[in-house]
Amino acid sequence: MTALWRRWFVQRDDALLADADICVKCGLCLPHCPTYKQTQDENESPRGRIALIQAWANGQLDASEKLLGHLDNCLLCRSCERVCPAVVPYSRLIDNFRSRRYLRGEASLALSLMKKVSHNKAVNRLAQKSLKFYQAGRLQKAARVLKLPELLHLDTIDRLLPEYHEPMPMQTYYAAQKHHKGDVGLFVGCMGQLLDHETVNAAVKLLTAIGFNVHVPEQQACCGALALHDGDRETAEQLAAINCRAFSGYSLEAIVTIASGCGSRLQEYQQTEFAGKVIDISRFLMQYAEKNLAERLLPLDATVCVHTPCSLKNVMRSEKEVAMLLRQIPGIAIKALPETIPCCGSAGSYMLDHAEMAQALLGDLLAVALEKQPGYLVSSNIGCALHIAAGLRERGIALEVLHPVALLARQLKA
């Protein structure tokens, strides 16, 4: 890189440097960073990555494979933001850096496929039909015996696929069962209807049961998190605009999300009128159904291990509501994972391209979770749930992983 090119680039990176310069390198973030805890490498810590960005933006370091590797290895769990005394906008800094070097067509096959399914409704519908063909018969078992997913570099996706269930057709409107309180929009996300029909149906069942009309706009799209964290800001902004238009025609009390990864992205849309209405479903249910819902739940004599996704804890700040909501089920015993357990390693598309680190983090989580001998493990984010469930299958452990509202809906009296 020439000196002239470096000077030109630095002039265009004032915003990047302004965010990076807020960091005082105190190191309070280090104990909370999953990749630093695994490696004890300063370059794998938040302040280390910020220092690398500063050196790159100032022209002191080139964008070498080694430098990019350390920055790409960040999970964007945002645990560092939660404890940072200087309030460094770390996620914005990483996203902006990635957008500076984004090149279309550079992603792995697994990530490219995931983005196509997420961003294109026609491809998503095709994926639903393909999954039925692949999983309902013996094709998936045969492919795994022949190691075709590995040969095609799609094994990181294949391991995540849950057992196939025929999806129920989605309506765009569901009426409140009784005592109408208002209207809400339900954001199902690009993967909810594809891989987690039970959670989508459970959300509708619970929301209508407590008195809300539920609108599910057909035009809604992917939240854009996959694109944003991959550096594709243009696509992320296009998807944000689509979602804002999709929900704009309704008078809504809230826009309820069932995946915290989506919810955290939606809450940070620049369109504040939309973003201000976004709420995680567990928090919404606690606000509007704390008393009358408990009276309508069947007992459950089981221990439930609660996994709190990073997006729910560090961005949406709604980590307490899940346990509070589930405790309304008579007879249930709640076991939360300790604060010392960091990110599960899913982190959106991270588990596809950083399998080694993702598996190391997952192993730590499962070791602690299984000590509690739970009957169920719940997680409020579909990516985390799929990753954890895959890890359990790979270890030969029969433990059901599901969304907390799915468990709640199962106990709802008819």
Q: How many β-strands, per DSSP?
A: 9
Instruction: Supply the CATH architecture of the largest domain.
Output: 3-Layer(aba) Sandwich
Give Rg in angstroms. Answer: 22 Å
Helix content: 40-55%
- Averaged pLDDT: 90
Which regions are unreliable across 5 or more consecutive residues at pLDDT < 50?
1-11
CATH top level of the largest domain? Alpha Beta
Shape category: globular
CATH topology of the largest domain: Rossmann fold
Tally the structural domains. Answer: 4
Instruction: Please indicate the percent range of residues in DSSP E strands (runs of 2 or more).
Output: 5-15%
Strand order of the largest sheet: 1-3-2-4-5
Could you describe the largest sheet, including whether it forms a barrel? 5 strands, mixed
Provide a count of the helices.
25
| Spatial separation of the terminal alpha carbons | 68 Å
**Structural class from helices and strands?**
alpha/beta
How would you characterize this protein structure?
The chain is α/β, with parallel strands linked by helices and 414 residues long. 52% of the residues lie in helices and 8% in strands. It contains 25 helices and nine strands. β8 (376-379), α24 (382-394) and β9 (400-402) form a beta-alpha-beta unit. α14 (197-209) packs across α25 (404-410) and α19 crosses α21 (319-326).
